[in-house]
Specification:
Distance between the termini: 59 Å
Order of helices and strands: EEEEEEEEHHHHEHHEEEEEEHEEEEHHH
Structural class: alpha+beta
Shape: extended
Strand content: 15-25%
Number of helices: 10
CATH architecture of the largest domain: 2-Layer Sandwich
Number of strands: 19
CATH class of the largest domain: Alpha Beta
CATH topology of the largest domain: Chloramphenicol Acetyltransferase
Length: 407
């Protein structure tokens, strides 16, 4: 029986995908559920598993854009599974029996014609070339037999700019559907929103003290690390409830406000930056946030993240600090209205109680859509995040860190 394999729908709004990579070759025998291709949608890269075992015939090329429901390959389910051990033995025997063939004598190479110097320059020309740091082979000799004359050396001009000899190749590759869609969305965010960014700085001393005191106990009990993301996610959900306009979106001439906080978290995957969503983050504990971010990051890294897991966030947190970024202006993730940018932590001189002290400081940035969020809300939101991070025991842990960390 010949089975037609069709492109499944990755999500409701997706009408077509692109064949990113075939993981098998035409005529290969494939096993049921074996990954045979990677397909790009405008939201994620997904694996296409074989529906049955058999010999595959490809009906689309890498880079082709195909509609959801289109046939991309055929599988002959009646084809016999090849006996790999027998074919290997036959191949090995053939190699043993094959007699080495005598090589035909190679023709002597013919020297390539050249217009450059083929004999030593005159002593006068050599001296001039040495002063100019020019090799005789770099210029055309006009003397007898291509000899470089004194006049040639006088007229020679040293090469300027990039030294020769290095590689200057280039390669042109087609952007994946995912990368093209990301590019379109980023340009749209810049062109279609009144984006503005406000900045602040956070003294991370209190968070460092909590982590130093409880991180080993937290890891021993929950089998995961106590990172910055749980503190920032809890601080953001608190601030979103204080300033609900930041947790809203524009839809045409209407504003949509949410009473829940679905936090999109930017993570690095094999196909680039991906933004899975932590649902109802306002209801999660510190352990719950850490566990969910870890789960989503592993799925993104392994290429198993689904479209549903990356759809529907109400606010985004992006941590450029893991790559060493000191300060940036993050771009809004449409249709959301705000994104918080985290950065690296550096020991800086700050003033506390009238004294100059050294403290671990992080710069934070909030980019927001000024069409729906006013300056008071944006600045107030970022100040609320700062206050919670600098006083986490009172504002995020209800004055009971062990209970908040479920220790």
């Amino acid at each position: 029986m010949i089975l037609e394999m069709k492109v499944p729908s990755p999500g409701e709004s997706i009408k077509e995908v692109e064949i990113a990579t075939w993981l098998v070759k035409d005529g290969d025998y494939v096993e049921k559920d074996q990954a045979i291709a990677e397909v790009d949608s405008d939201k994620a890269t997904l694996e296409l598993p074989a529906e049955m075992s058999g010999v595959i015939t490809l009906k689309a090329e890498e880079g082709d854009t195909v509609a959801v429901g289109a046939v991309v390959c055929l599988i002959d389910t009646d084809a016999a599974r090849p006996d790999t051990s027998a074919s290997s033995a036959t191949t090995a025997a053939a190699k043993v029996e094959e007699a080495p063939k005598a090589e035909a004598p190679k023709a002597a190479p013919v020297p390539a014609a050249t217009t450059y110097a083929t004999s030593a320059p005159s002593p006068a020309a050599r001296k001039i070339l040495d002063e100019k740091n020019i090799q005789p082979t770099d210029i055309v000799g006009t003397g007898k037999g291509g000899r470089v004359t004194k006049e040639d050396a006088v007229n020679a001009v040293p090469s300027m700019g990039t030294p020769t000899g290095g590689s200057r190749s280039s390669e042109r590759t087609k952007l994946s559907m995912l990368r093209r869609k990301v590019a379109e969305r980023l340009v749209a965010a810049k062109n279609e929103t009144a984006m503005l960014t406000t900045f602040n700085e956070v003294d991370m001393s209190a968070i460092y003290a909590i982590r130093d005191q409880y991180k080993e106990e937290f890891k021993a009990k929950h089998q995961m690390g106590l990172g910055f993301m749980s503190f920032f996610t809890k601080a953001v959900t608190r601030a979103l409830q204080l300033y609900p306009d930041v947790n809203s979106m524009i839809d045409g001439q209407e504003k949509i406000s949410y009473d829940f906080c679905d936090i999109s978290v930017a993570v690095s995957g094999p196909k680039g930056l991906m933004v899975p969503v932590v649902r109802n983050a306002e209801l999660l504990s510190f352990r719950g946030v850490e566990a969910e971010i870890k789960r989503l990051a592993i799925r993104a890294r392994d290429g198993q993240i689904t479209v549903d897991e990356m759809t529907g966030g109400t606010f985004t947190i992006s941590n450029g600090g893991v790559f060493g970024s000191m300060l940036s202006t993050p771009i809004i993730n449409p249709p959301q209205s705000g994104i918080l940018g985290m950065h690296n932590v550096v020991e800086r001189a700050i003033v506390k109680n009238g004294q100059i002290v050294i403290a671990p400081v992080m710069f934070v940035a909030l980019s927001y859509d000024h069409r729906i969020i006013d300056g008071r809300e944006s600045v107030g939101f970022l100040v609320a995040v700062k206050e919670a991070l600098e006083n986490p025991i009172e504002l995020l842990m209800d004055n009971n860190p062990k209970k908040a960390l479920e220790l």
